[in-house]
Design goal:
Number of helices: 10
Radius of gyration: 18 Å
Structural class: alpha/beta
Shape: globular
Strand content: 15-25%
Helix content: 25-40%
Number of domains: 2
Order of helices and strands: HEHHHHHEHEEEEHEHEEH
Strand order of the largest sheet: 3-2-1-7-8-9
CATH architecture of the largest domain: 3-Layer(aba) Sandwich
Number of strands: 9
Largest sheet: 6 strands, parallel
CATH superfamily of the largest domain: TPP-binding domain
Bound molecules: ligand BV8
Distance between the termini: 15 Å
Length: 235
């Protein structure tokens, strides 16, 4: 894989945002949302990850998150996570990670700044008083409300602080490295267009090109491309 051009682009960039989706975690064995492994008991995430479904079947939704956490407890970081962690540490404040993922794997690999647009599967908050706990399966709150995973469900707005930080970064970046997203979920997917509008280059890593009309695509997987792309002295 000859990535000299892409490595040069990365080297010359002063403000880089790495924008990731479920494909970033796929090679650690974490199912993506819309790939062939995207179903859970025959349902799609869009059906389960909603306030309405939680209201009607809280136990089934909590079981969905229990199943994902259990799976995540046993996953290993893949070489792409490790390369990205090393590179973001090397580049420091020049690089930020904006992720749609809730699995915490970027933090585990040492990325200094990670903005979780869709929250985290590792914390919960009370639906009634909003008390937040860094634990899971917390059950009922002392106020009588029910704890729920602190992830953004479909139909819910994104956390204000993370959203404004992400829009600020995307508006001022000169390069967006998009890794493993089908770019179908909004408003997150709209961030790439925002960056393009402000003149950023967009480099995509995905086995199947998604952003073909607006980005340079490196057709490949995160675990194979990222070590090659980011480990060279050029990057
Ligand atoms: C909002 C957290 C409004 C939960 C997630 C009706 C009502 C309300 C809103 C809507 C509506 N209709 C549409 C919407 C908007 C909706 C939306 O966009 N729906 C889509 C499905 C059309 N958005 C929302 O609801 C958002 N909120 O609009 O609120 C509002 C506004 C103001 C006030 C109040 C309300 C909230 C969206 C957030 C939903 N939560 N996750 C959880 O995790 O349980 S989204 C979920 O999808 C994940 O976060 C995931 O990351 C994200 C995006 O998916 P991808 O990451 O791209 O994953 P996918 O499987 O799709 O693709 C994987 C890609 O990787 C593929 O391209 C594949 O080729 C590639 N790949 C595979 N293997 C590899 C690889 N790449 C590299 N290497 C590999 N090895």
């Amino acid at each position: 894989m000859n990535l000299i051009r892409e490595q040069q682009l990365i080297l010359q960039s002063e403000k880089v945002v790495v924008f990731t989706g479920a494909g970033m975690s796929a090679e650690s064995g974490v199912p993506t949302f819309r790939g062939k492994d995207g179903l859970w008991r025959g349902r799609r995430a869009e059906e389960i990850a909603t306030p309405e479904f939680f209201a009607s079947s809280p136990e089934e939704v909590l079981e969905f998150y229990r199943w994902r956490r259990e799976l995540l407890k046993h996953v290993e970081l893949h070489p792409g996570h490790v390369a990205l962690g090393e590179w973001t540490k090397k580049r420091g404040s020049a690089v930020s990670v904006v992720t749609q993922n809730v699995d915490g794997l970027h933090q585990k690999s040492g990325c200094p700044e990670v903005i979780e647009l869709h929250g985290s599967i590792w914390s919960e908050h009370c639906q009634r008083c909003q008390e937040t706990v860094e634990e899971t399966d917390a059950g009922l709150c002392s106020c009588g409300g029910r704890f729920r995973p602190s992830v953004v469900w479909f139909g819910e707005s994104l956390p204000e602080k993370g959203w404004s930080r992400a829009t600020d970064l995307m508006s001022n970046a000169d390069l967006i490295l998009v890794i493993g997203t089908s770019a179908v979920v909004y408003p997150a997917a709209g961030l790439v267009s925002l960056a393009l509008k402000n003149g950023a280059h967009v480099l995509e890593v995905n086995p199947e090109p998604v952003l073909e009309d607006s980005a340079q695509t490196i057709c490949g997987t995160a675990a194979t491309v990222l070590p090659e792309l980011l480990r060279s002295p050029q990057a």
